[in-house]
Design the sequence.
C-alpha cells in the first residue's frame, strides 16, 4: 500500500518537464520547446523534487545537468512518453473505427489481388464504411503504419528487410514473378528462355521494388551471370506498362499486375525457369496496435481472400 500511495503522488506532467530539461540541455531551451515560461518550468521541477525528496538537477556552469536521480527518472519518463504516444494512437484508431473509417496502405500486388474483393465484402456488411487506400512507396507506407497514420498495409511483405522492429506480418499466399515483354517479342513464343539471353535486355523496374530487384539479381548470380542493368527506373506502374508497350523492354513483376494487357494480347510472358522467384504476400500491422472490431473484420476478409488465392496457385 505504501508503494501504491507513492505512485499516486507522481505527476506525469512534471516528469515530462524534467525530461524536456534533460534532453534540451537546460531550463531556457526546454521552456522554449514546451512553450512555457522559465519560472513555471523551474517551479514544476522543484515541486517534483519536493515530492520525491531527492535533487534532480544541479548547476554546472551557466546551465544545469541531471543528478543520478534526475537521470534515472528521466529514463523512466522517456518510457512514459512513448507509452502516451501509443495511447494517443490507439484512441485515434478507436475514434476512426467508431466512425466507420479505415486507412489502408497497399502495394501494387495488394491492389491487384486482395484489396478489391476485401473492400467489396466489407461494403456488403458495412455500407456506411469509408476507406482511404494509399499506394505510396512501400517504405513510406511502413513509416506511416509505424506512426499510426495507416491501420494496415496489404500486399508485399518486408520479410526482415524493413528498418521497423515493431511491425508484424502475416503471410497469406506466395506470389510468383513473371518476366514480361510486349507480346511481339520473339522470346515470348519460346518454350523456355535462358537468363543469358536476358542479361543484355533493356530492363524497366518500379523504383520501390527492392525485393523484386534482389530476386532478379539472385537468379542471375545463381546462374553465374552479372545482374542485368535496369535502364529505366520509375515510381509509376503505369509508366512501366507504357515502356513495355513501346517495345524492346522487359520487366519482372507479378503477372496479375498486367492481367488486362495479357488478356488483350498486348503483353506476353517470357518463359524462364525461376529458382526462387516467389514473394510472400499478406498484411502488416503495428505489433501493439489496437485491433478494432472493424480492423478485425478486415483481417478476416483478407485471410479468406488469401486462402482463395493460395488454392488457385495450388490448382495451377
Sequence:
Amino acid at each position: 500500500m505504501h508503494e501504491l500511495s507513492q505512485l499516486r503522488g507522481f505527476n506525469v506532467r512534471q516528469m515530462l518537464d524534467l525530461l524536456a530539461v534533460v534532453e534540451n540541455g537546460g531550463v531556457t531551451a526546454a521552456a522554449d520547446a514546451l512553450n512555457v515560461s522559465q519560472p513555471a518550468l523551474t517551479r514544476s521541477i522543484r515541486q517534483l523534487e519536493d515530492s520525491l525528496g531527492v535533487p534532480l538537477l544541479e548547476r554546472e556552469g551557466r546551465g544545469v545537468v541531471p543528478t543520478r536521480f534526475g537521470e534515472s527518472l528521466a529514463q523512466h519518463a522517456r518510457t512514459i512518453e512513448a507509452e502516451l504516444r501509443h495511447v494517443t494512437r490507439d484512441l485515434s484508431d478507436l475514434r476512426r473505427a467508431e466512425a466507420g473509417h479505415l486507412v489502408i496502405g497497399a502495394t501494387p500486388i495488394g491492389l491487384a489481388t486482395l484489396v478489391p474483393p476485401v473492400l467489396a465484402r466489407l461494403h456488403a456488411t458495412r455500407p456506411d464504411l469509408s476507406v482511404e487506400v494509399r499506394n505510396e512507396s512501400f517504405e513510406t507506407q511502413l513509416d506511416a503504419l509505424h506512426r499510426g497514420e495507416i491501420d494496415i498495409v496489404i500486399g508485399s511483405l518486408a520479410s526482415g528487410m524493413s528498418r521497423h522492429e515493431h511491425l508484424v506480418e502475416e503471410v497469406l499466399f506466395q506470389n510468383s514473378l513473371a518476366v514480361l515483354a510486349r507480346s511481339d517479342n520473339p522470346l515470348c513464343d519460346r518454350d523456355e528462355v535462358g537468363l543469358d539471353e536476358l542479361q543484355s535486355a533493356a530492363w524497366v523496374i518500379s523504383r520501390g521494388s527492392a525485393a523484386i530487384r534482389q530476386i532478379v539479381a539472385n537468379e542471375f548470380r545463381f546462374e553465374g551471370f552479372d545482374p542485368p542493368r535496369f535502364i529505366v527506373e520509375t515510381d509509376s506502374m503505369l509508366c512501366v506498362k507504357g515502356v513495355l508497350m513501346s517495345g524492346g523492354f522487359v520487366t519482372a513483376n507479378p503477372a496479375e499486375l498486367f492481367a488486362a494487357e495479357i488478356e488483350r494480347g498486348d503483353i506476353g510472358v517470357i518463359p524462364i525457369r525461376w529458382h526462387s522467384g516467389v514473394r510472400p504476400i499478406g498484411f502488416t500491422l503495428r505489433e501493439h496496435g489496437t485491433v478494432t472490431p472493424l480492423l478485425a473484420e478486415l483481417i478476416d476478409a483478407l485471410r479468406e481472400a488469401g486462402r482463395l488465392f493460395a488454392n488457385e496457385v495450388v490448382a495451377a
Residues 92 and 148 are 8 Å apart (CA to CA).
